[in-house]
Amino acid sequence: MIVTLKPQHGKAWIFMKPFTKEMWAVTGAILMYTVFIVWLLERQSNPEFEGRWQNQLGTALWFTSSTLFAAQRDRVHNSYTRVVVLVWLFVVLALSSSYTASLSSMLTTQRLQPNVTDIDWLKKSNATIGCGSYSFISLYSENVLNFDPRNIKAISSEYDYPGEFESGNISAAFVEHPYAKAFLKYYCEGYTLAQPIGGVEHRFGGWGFVFQKGSPIAEDFSQAILTLSENGRLEQLKTTWFIPSPKCFNSQTPDKGDSLSW
Fold this sequence. Notes:
Helix content is 46%, strand content 9%. It contains 10 helices and 6 strands. Helix 5 (137-143) links the parallel strand 3 and strand 4 (152-155). It starts with a strand and ends in a 13-residue tail after the last helix.
C-alpha cells in the first residue's frame, strides 16, 4: 500500500517525546529515591533540614531537583551524602545531554508520517483506493479485503498515480511489490510504503513462468532461478535496479520514534 506523507503535527507536547513513558517513570523514581536518601542522611547534621518533616522533604526535593538545571551550590554536611550526590550528578549529566540532543533533533528536522496506515480506516471512511486496471489486486481488494467496488478506481498507468494522489481522487494505491519499489525509486519525495499495524502484510508467493505441459525447458528454468537465488544474484539485481535516485537521499524520512528508552 503506497500512501502520501504529511508533516507531523502536535508539537505542543514535543518536549515530552525525547524520552519514552518508561524512561520518564524511571527518571522520576530515581529522583524520588535520591531525595529520600539525601533527606535521610542530612536531616540530623544539616541545619537547613530543620523543622517539620514536610519542610525537610521539601528542602531535599529542591536540593536534588535543582541540580537538573543549575550547578549545585548548597552545602552538604555528610560524607555519604556527597557520594550519593556525585552519582546523581553523573545521572543528571547523561539525562540532560541525551534530552537536549534528542529534542534539538526533533525541533530542527522535519518529521513526516504516513497519511494512512490502516486498511480498516480506508474502509470505514469510504476512501477511494487506486489499483492497476489490468491487475488482480482490484478483485482481491473487493473479494478478500472487502472494499466497496465503488471505492476502487482503476489506474491505467503507473505514471498516473501521482496526479491521482495530488487531486485527492485516491487516498492509497495497492500495487504489486516490485511495482511499488519501482514507483518509490522515482517518487520517493512525499510517498512511502505504509507499514501495516501489527506486522500483517498482504503478500503472495510471487510470480511464475508458465510453459506448455511436458516442456523440456521447464526444469532448466527452475534450476536457473534457484541458482540465481542461492548465489545472491537476484539480490544484486534488486540492489542495482531499485536503487533510489540521488534526490531521495536528501528527502525527509518518516518519523521512526527515536525516543530514548530506559
